[in-house]
Amino acid sequence: MDLAFLGGLIFALAVLVLGVFAAGVSWGALIDVASVFITFGGSIATVIMQNPLSLTLKVPTIFKQAFFEPKIDVKSKILQIVSFAEKARRDGLLALEDDMDRLDDPFLKKALQLVVDGTDAEIVRNVMQIEIDSLEQRHAANRNWFDTLGTMAPAFGMLGTLIGLVGMLSNLGGDIASIGRGMAAALITTLYGSFLANVFAIPTREKLRGRTNTELTVRQILLEGVLSIQAGDNPRIVLEKLVSYLSPEERKQVQKAERES
Question: Is residue 153 within 8 Å of 201, Cβ to Cβ?
Fold first, then answer.
């Protein structure tokens, strides 16, 4: 579970609740069924219209990817690449074929298979770069659902506000209380739209973007490592090249683990 995502969501809700109490607004005044239908129903309906149905059906699964942080041990992957470099330098590239059956990373397995088969380095880079680009495109399509929701929710909040204002203006000269209720209902839809976009849709989209960037970085590390093995680079050079993708603190951890191994 991603504690940052969960903690941020809880904190946002807590701040909203405290703000309501501080303003002295009753919770009953913030609940309006018509505004729920207009804002939530309208924005979700248009998001469904703009995206494939198959993507909408996958939204719960996609949201789980934002809520639960994947376990990607970059340190172990780098050390594994370095061990492959040592073995290839000592016994030749064909010696890596015995290790491929034990790999659980399809991307690394495919890249190594191309190298063991004697594929030209430029072709290996092009083929695996297509894999990386395809991953990025798929994830961007998944994020698009939340991106669209972040755009449409405030728009429908404003639409609901306009509907409420029309109702309020039509009662001018009549009951003052009904005018006040109409004005409150008009503003609530804006509140709902802003909440749906800024507390749910946009944070989820950005968290998914971060997940994608992490996975792309890992794949880039694996690709560079495999190409270094193919080029016959010294394992020490391979290590230094791959840790360049990491933060200074992570570099120290990987280098320390390599010395201890």
Answer: yes
